[in-house]
Specification:
mainly alpha; 335 residues; single chain; two-stranded antiparallel ribbon
Length: 335
Amino acid sequence: MWDNIWYALLALLLTGYLVLDGITIGTGMVGRLLARTDAERRTVDAATGPFFLGNEVWLVAAAGITLGGFPGLESTVVSGMAPLIVVAVAALVLRHAAIQFRRRVPTPGWRRRWDLFLQAACVTLALMWGALGAVVLGALPVKDGHLSPSLDLLLRPVPAASALTAVAVLALHGAVFLARRTSGPVAERAAALTARLGTAAAGLGLLTLLAAAFDARTRDGVPNALPAVLIAVAAITSALLAARLVASDSPGAPVFSGLAACLPVLAIGIGRFPQTVMSTYEGENLSLAEAAAHPDTLGLVGPLMLLVLPVLLAFQAMQWWAFRTRTDERSPVYF
């Protein structure tokens, strides 16, 4: 029982990360396109500043759940995908540096340089998460509990299409956020950009779905194909709806852009359940029970995690309520 609860908790934390920090990644990608003056850039920074560090808590918590609750998953996927994860961590560090250092020297050249670093870091993060999701979705060369990484895992149409889809979806999510949480020219440009990004995200998502359907390794990695496909279609539809709702100034737009960002995690989890890893070698699949820690360990720590989670959710809700108003160039910047 506890392994199922921890699996659901891991899915919740990963979806929470993509919905919340996906905003920061998205605004980092589109911020330079929307904010054309330093005052407009301040508007973007003021909108994302209060949530920046809090959003990353979800990724840290998900990493803790993986390391403590699923040692089998950590020793295969996490260790085998170490090069991708190292690149993602390096991009996270560069993003922090760009955000913190940008305002340290008040010269245009300095700030443009760090804006470029920020955009590059956020694009890299989106590419890495998209590629990693596609790789994990397919059957992996796991033997005796170990994954043998190779470029062949990445140099396929599905990871490439998934990486580009992640860039478009998270850029859409960030643009929707700025359209709803900023004012003036930034909000107007963000609203106009969402129409193009919604179409691009939906088109790339459909391309990824078609590539997965024709890829034998991906098909072998998804025993529950029907629910996975339905969830993927829901994500594509959500991207289109988010763009349309922004055009009509509906408050529901961020909900649908958030769904477009996080539903792929559910597609992987449900499409794979009760397996966590599908192997290309016969008899080498890693089930949820095999990947999880000992039931006594999960049962001991599980109740504590279930107590901490409501506190995390309550804090996030309070934070979003406190900073619910639109920002402009006079709003305080928190970094």
